[in-house]
Write a structure and sequence with these properties.
With 204 residues, the chain is an alpha/beta fold. It contains four helices and ten strands. The chain folds into two domains: 45 residues; 147 residues, Glucose Oxidase, domain 1. α1 runs antiparallel to α4. The radius of gyration is 24 Å and the shape is globular.
Length: 204
């Protein structure tokens, strides 16, 4: 192989290696907001990674994507039986406490009862963890895991009964953030290309 071709190959490999971490860093993000039930203006925005997060999965993929705005409705019990959803309003977002059964079972039961989305709040006062849906193919609605404190806050709003609690829940792809290594390798490749271009100009 000629030296000229070797240089181009080296530069190409450098650029490909540099771009790989950028692609690998892509993940999901949840958005959770409480809206004014009349104006739909945002009243509260809750912090991703602190107040709420998405479910990962044992199988390839993640919880289903989606963006829904609807009234929040508390599900008594643990959502492990269809009877827990008696009287559930079609199109609402279900608020369910963690415990006893798989998250997938709770989400599936809620979806079968007409829920447009599902929030599952922790049953202990601990920092937000990352939990899994065992079989995400059984569900199609967006769902998220939230802290116990936030779940109880929502429950208090609902128990006050003074107004509807309108929630926006979104599970979507996050915008990939270039890592420092990515930028360094990409810059190195561009510098190499620029240097090669200058040499060609000098020979002309």
């Amino acid at each position: 192989m000629k030296r000229k071709n070797k240089r181009w190959l080296l530069i190409l490999v450098t650029l490909m290696v540099g771009l790989a971490p950028m692609t690998a860093s892509a993940t999901l993000i949840t958005i959770l907001e409480r809206l004014d039930p009349v104006t739909n203006l945002v009243i509260d925005q809750y912090e991703f990674g602190t107040d709420h997060t998405y479910f990962s999965t044992k199988a390839p993929g993640f919880t289903p994507l989606g963006d829904v705005t609807a009234n929040l409705q508390y599900v008594p019990g643990l959502g492990d039986e269809p009877t827990d959803f008696m009287g559930f309003t079609n199109g609402n977002i279900a608020l369910i406490e963690r415990g006893d059964v798989y998250f997938t079972t709770k989400v599936t039961n809620a979806e079968d009862s007409g829920a447009a989305g599902v929030l599952i709040y922790d049953h202990t006062d601990q920092n937000l963890g990352r939990y899994r849906l065992v079989n995400p193919s059984q569900t199609t609605v967006p769902s998220a895991f939230i802290t116990r404190n936030l779940g109880l806050e929502f429950l208090k709003f609902l128990n006050d009964g003074t107004e509807e609690v309108k929630i926006r829940l979104a599970v979507q792809n996050a915008v990939p953030t270039p890592e420092p290594t990515t930028m360094l390798l990409l810059g190195t490749g561009l510098i190499g290309l620029a240097g090669l271009g200058r040499r060609k100009l000098k020979k002309k």
